[in-house]
Design brief:
Helix content is 34%, strand content 14%. The chain is α+β, with helices and mostly antiparallel strands and 455 residues long. A six-stranded mixed β-sheet has the order 4-3-2-1-5-6, with helices on one face. The protein has a three-stranded antiparallel β-sheet with strand order 7-8-11, with helices on one face. A three-stranded antiparallel β-sheet has the order 12-15-16, covered by helices on one side.
């Protein structure tokens, strides 16, 4: 798919509004005159400071407008399919500090909307809706709306519950424009990972690798990271969301880099594990190859209609087989070790999650109350639909906090402690790619090199 021709067009806000409206009306009894209403994120200031906090647009608002400006509002009149964006009016006092804001004419040219009005026109516009012969029914999100059931000054019939869940579900399947945005975020991310790999030989501290990654992203056009990057060397890589990124690299074998760019509110999510001295040693390479096999076999199984729990279970089966062949697991056959879930201490997280405007995107329906440790942290449950984007991120970790208590349990008999002691310093290996699920399989959006300098 060519990205540039797609991204030269407008973000398909009206198509998203229509999709949400259709889903809403198909799942719920629809009133005669429904209107979607959302408020964008407001400008917030740092506590005891006149500096604004870093702005992050509300994702549901962006999904229906493509607008990343603060202090905006939208209405979408479902019967006429009219999308109106309300933007802050010109404030002469702020122009001297911040320059001219986007005008209504510029907004109409930039965004896929029908009308653009100053936000000062919002109350009279809503009041005008209320005076229609067929009174509108407002759909909004209660926690992000100043008009609540307890105090709606317009007394419009309103529903503050359904809209959020509906948009959550609509965001799961991506259109071509969204996939193009994710592809571009991955392109920037791949170049940033390549820069990190080149700098490993000269870097002395984890923070230098993080600095290289962020510099490349900014140089390539984005100032936003999809999430706080992980640059964990040695045993730090055993911490799944390690964020300190400040330890020296000397004396350590490998570094796990989980970092990605955000482009126009859409996130990549990529992890690579690199050797620090130019080449994996034998044990690091063995773990790397095992994780690579887990990922390859899972991707080979994936296509629309496949149950994600089954793919996750396959990753664990491959992990058990590999850990058994390396001698880390012992004392039973593969089937018994799978039944005892002996891979879970070494692979404690879910295989992946939906990806989009959020790194852990909506619609996955996780069940964190699941009593089965193998599935407890799986962020996506159920069948994969065609067009969803999901990460595939198996890993093998040697986390003392998780594994050492198990050595004292009955299950400890399945772990060869002497062999295990040879692997602690590896910390962890994770490989993560972002894929689009298709009818026949998957399309990998991630181009970052997987193996390190020497293999």
């Amino acid at each position: 798919m060519e990205v540039e021709p797609i991204l030269t067009g407008k973000y398909p806000a009206k198509a998203h509004c229509a999709k949400v409206a259709s889903y809403l009306q198909s799942r719920h009894s629809a009133p005669a005159n429904p209107v979607l209403y959302l408020e964008g994120q407001k400008t917030h200031f740092k506590e005891d400071n006149d500096e604004p906090q870093t702005f992050r647009q509300r994702r549901h608002f962006f999904y229906l407008t493509g607008c990343a400006l603060p202090d905006c509002y939208l209405t979408y009149h479902i019967p006429t399919q009219t999308l109106t964006l309300f933007i802050p009016p010109l404030d002469p006092a702020s122009v001297i500090w911040s320059g001219l804001p986007l005008s209504s004419e510029e907004a109409l040219s930039k965004y896929d909307i029908d009308l653009c009005l100053p936000s000062t026109d919002l109350p009279p516009q809503l009041a005008q809706l209320a005076l229609q012969s067929q009174q509108p029914h407002l759909y909004a999100t209660g926690t992000q709306t100043r008009y609540t059931e307890a105090g709606n000054p317009l007394l419009l019939p309103s529903d503050f519950e359904k809209l959020k869940d509906v948009i959550d579900e609509c965001r799961v399947v991506k259109d071509d424009y969204e996939i193009a945005l994710l592809r571009h975020a991955n392109k920037i991310t791949a170049e940033a990972h390549a820069a990190v790999l080149k700098s490993i030989g000269s870097a002395k501290n984890e923070r230098e690798l993080e600095a290289v990654f962020i510099e490349r992203c900014i140089a390539l056009g984005t100032t936003e990271q999809a999430y706080h990057g992980i640059f964990g060397s040695g045993e730090n890589a055993a911490t799944l969301h390690y964020v300190h990124n400040n330890q020296p690299l000397a004396g350590r074998k490998n570094v796990l880099v989980d970092a990605a760019a955000e482009w126009e509110c859409y996130c990549a999510d990529v992890t690579r594990t690199y050797p620090l001295n130019g080449k994996f040693d034998d044990k690091s390479l063995a773990i790397y190859k095992l994780v690579e096999k887990m990922q390859n076999e899972c991707m080979g199984m994936m296509k629309a209609g496949v149950k994600w729990e089954d793919v996750h279970a396959l990753a664990h089966r491959v992990a058990v087989s590999g850990l058994l062949s390396l001698g880390i697991l012992k004392g039973a056959g593969e089937e018994e070790l799978v039944e005892k879930e002996m891979s879970t201490p070494f692979f404690p997280h879910g295989l992946g999650h939906y990806l989009g405007m959020d790194t852990h995107d909506t619609g996955g329906h996780p069940d964190y109350d699941d009593e089965d440790d193998m599935f407890k942290y799986l962020r996506v449950r159920g069948v994969l639909p065609e067009g969803c984007v999901i990460t595939v991120e198996p890993g093998i970790y040697f986390c003392r906090f998780i594994i050492e208590p198990i050595l004292k349990e009955e299950r400890g008999k399945y772990v060869d402690k002497e062999v295990l002691d040879q692997y602690w310093e590896i910390g962890g290996v994770r490989i993560e790619d972002d894929v689009v699920v298709t009818k026949e399989g998957v399309e990998n959006l991630t181009g970052a090199r997987k193996q390190g300098i020497g293999g």
